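Posting this for the archive.
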Amino acid sequence: MKGPLRCAILDDYQEAATTLADWSPLEGRVETVVFSDHLAHEEWLAARLADFDIVVTLRERVPFPATLFDRLPRLKLLVASGMRNSVIDYAAARRCGVVVCGTASSSTPPVELTWALLLGLARGIVPENAAVRSYGPWQSTLGADLHGSRLGLLGLGKIGSRVARVGLAFGMDVVAWSRNLTKERADEVGVGLAGSKGELLESSDFVSVHLALGDRTRGLIGRRELARMKPTGYLVNTSRAAIVDQRALLEALHAGTIAGAGIDVFDAEPLPGDHPMRSAPRLLATPHLGYVTRGNYATYYGEAVEDIVAFLDGSPVRVLG
């Protein structure tokens, strides 16, 4: 390939792409343009990307359906951080002659954020901090004890198992459930195997979601499931928004049928200004920070450069789909 080609780096909200990776291997071959805003409409995105040969997209912030690939005849390479992406139509990419490549991604950051949310909920960190800083009441919440309480994990994969081990270190009774989870796997991690999803929800003081989104997990937690949780129970979701029925969760938070929720993923991202999640009570919310750390970003963008160089040299690496 002859250059310079044009590369768009999308949704770099923190403007970190060019500071956490060395892009010099592309000098003279590729012109890079960084966009720090988010375009929610496909028409706008297609217009922005019309003159680019390469696109680097971060996680699943931007869907790439067939209709978008069809509007980008110049696009030849799409680099997505991570090695799994549910919002890219791989068949359409192949049909349009677009190579899709991925990068490594650490599972440690979402584990750590899960515990940040869980601890924040348990000890009322946000309201107590706000009270201290606004000269409000001195001590207004009663913290929930982790030691001796039950942590119920929906999913015991790479992330769920690490969350489990931290729970065990806190002295929690940890149980897990998923449709395919076996007692052998639960024993390997050192946790109990819940007899059913309902049993886990009814018995747990904290419920944390660590499942991949698919046909069998979409809407897995709805009104009936939330109603089975303890009124003193907390729900944490750092996985995918669609696993938990958003409307049902809002109803439970407003009604106070659960003690609270820690949520990092939403049905619309970034959240619109008038989205009801922004004003929901009993909610500790973060803007999808699960994977957002310096180390992860350095990996994403560093390997994105490697992907581009390999593609230009005719030997693509980490090809997806």
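The CA atoms of residues 112 and 290 lie 8 Å apart. The first helix runs from residue 42 to 49.
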